[in-house]
Write a structure and sequence with these properties.
- The chain has 79 residues and is mainly alpha-helical.
- The longest helix is centred in the middle third of the chain and has 37 residues.
- The protein has four helices and no strands.
- It has one domain.
- InterPro entries: YjiS-like.
- This is DUF1127 domain-containing protein.
- Pfam families: YjiS-like.
């Protein structure tokens, strides 16, 4: 039995290339999110381990720790 190559079969390699590129993109995005999450968690842990006195010396309020960690994660991954 022979299979005729139709227009749909001819586009198959292009579709595969497109799907591969989308997968690579989603993988890259997931890796970047993992890096940001790791930096965020490490920063929050490190700042939470400081005493109130040490935080005051740095000019950081305990209520600002999450925001500072989020900013740190965004900046470090963007570079």
């Amino acid at each position: 039995m022979t299979i005729a190559i139709s227009g749909n079969n001819a586009r198959f390699p292009a579709i595969l290339d497109y799907l591969r590129s989308r997968f690579r993109h989603y993988l890259f995005v997931a890796q970047q999110a993992n890096k940001r999450r790791s930096i965020y968690r490490a920063t929050v842990h490190e700042l939470n381990s400081l005493t109130n006195r040490n935080l005051a010396d740095l000019g950081i309020s305990r209520s600002h720790i999450r925001r500072l960690a989020l900013e740190a994660a965004q900046l470090k991954v963007a570079k």
